[in-house]
Amino acid sequence: MNPQAILILFIVNLNAFIGSYSEMSAGDALEKLAAMSAPSCTLIRNGGKIVTLDAKHCVPGDVVVVKTGESGLRNFNLGQLILIG
Fold it and tell me: Is residue 33 domain-shared with residue 17, that is, in the same domain?
């Protein structure tokens, strides 16, 4: 077999390997970013127990614990919140 053909086959296979690896790494990175950006909140429930849950599990009657620098209140209606110091 021609040495140039062997070199071309090697380069094509190397390119396929690198492309597959890059795609797999990008998929893993997207999954990690999605997990990091999932909205969560700290609540006081059931007689004073402090729990951290996904924001979709908040129900009327939950007391939301808000700390300085948190940006979670953009999804809450302030008319439904009771703010305590």
Answer: yes
